[in-house]
Write a structure and sequence with these properties.
There is one protein chain. The chain is α+β, with helices and mostly antiparallel strands. The protein is 40% helix and 26% strand. The protein has 15 helices and 17 strands. α14 runs antiparallel to α15. The N terminus is likely disordered.
Length: 496
Amino acid sequence: MSEACIFSAGCSELADLVRTYRWADTPLGPIADWPQSLVFAVSTLLQSPVPIVLLWGEDGIMIYNDAYSGFAGGRHPELLGSKVREGWPEVADFNDNVMRVGLAGGTLSYRDQELTLHRYGRPERVWMNLDYSPVFGEDGRPAGVIAIVVESTERVLAERRLRASEELFRTLAQGIPQLVWRAAIDGACIWSSPQWQAYTGQTDATSLGWGWLEAVHPGDEAVAEAAWREAPLSGHLSFEHRLRNAAEDRFCWFQTRAAPVRDARGRIVEWLGTSTDIDDLRQLQERQQVMVAELQHRTRNLLGVVRSIAKQTMAQTGPGETFRQRFNDRLSALSRVQGLLSRSDQEPITLRALIETELAALDAPAMPARIRLHGPVVRLRKATVQTFALALHELATNALKYGALTTAHGRLSVTWRTYRADDGGGRLLVEWVEEGLVRGPELADAPPRGGYGRELIEHALPYALKATTSYELGATALHCSINIPLPEGEAAGNPA
């Protein structure tokens, strides 16, 4: 058989190379002397689009096709006609086993077999699917080995990168405080993180599909379903709902958000989402709303008090310097009590602190031998403090300007006590007693002690605090008592 009819010129690159190779210099000898089995095997592999190499004889003389030349890389075309152990010296042991098994009539098959080859002059890790089968000669015994070589390096590395990416995602998903999940296009869960399962008490199986909805508060299920119906149209998902806290057996507020995962054509294939605990934030916002409403209420009340002070002072003094002075004094008293109120969350306001603040503002502590304060620790409610402080300011101002503190022998005694009334409710009794009053000539022009202060004590306190009051001014003494209900929030302690 002539070589021209075996391997036609121009059929393929390798067909031309095989046809023109100097086989006479190899153990195979010239093509014209090749046995029919060898010619048939070479003809077959040259026409195959699959990478195939024939290893003929004990040395494994290599004859391969165009597809295998691409796999051989920089080793082609030197590999053609070479001995396989010499052609691939870096895997000589591997190929030695192939030849030994194949020439013994056996077959070998490998999937994603990892080898290190030097196809381009440097070590390179490659993965291949390898199938080896013996080729029988005219005598019926194995004369060579034919190998189908399909490189799988790109797929193996892609799968490894994908597994690494998935592992990274799972590590990230399991390391953040949010509850992470994946869902199908319609919202059916396809994976939930361990955080979700730990928080809701669901298992991986019970959270799948629409099982996750069992952990949502019944009152929020409609919100969740509506959000999922809208998500494919808008391309985003965001809604707030309550989620069952299995450990505490209660529902807490969560914000759920998700981003779509799209394919190469931009179509949504699934959703990747998180559910974030916003229960503390919701409670804080609710408290802020209450605080804003309370602030607005207090501001309106405070403006009302200022307006009332201005009106009462004007009625007592008329316009002029006296009005300015007394109005400023009363605004200062109001400012001091607002300062106490602003710190009341950290520093409860006690009756003693309220009295001492007013006396200190009038510089009365400079007369400690003439002032006596005695009573238990009584914490006042915020609602009580403002009106009570204004009454104490009026009493202290009058004592300093017109009362016991204007004379060398005058004495001021402020005592208080708490007790249980006949109706079972607590009460606070404050007694303000001034002794040694002397109405000298220098006080001849002083206003009568029945002005704004007395108005506060006899009318404002009973109205605002449900107090019982008395105000008795004698020739040498003043006795004022204020008796107010003492709710449970106004605690009493030891004398201070």
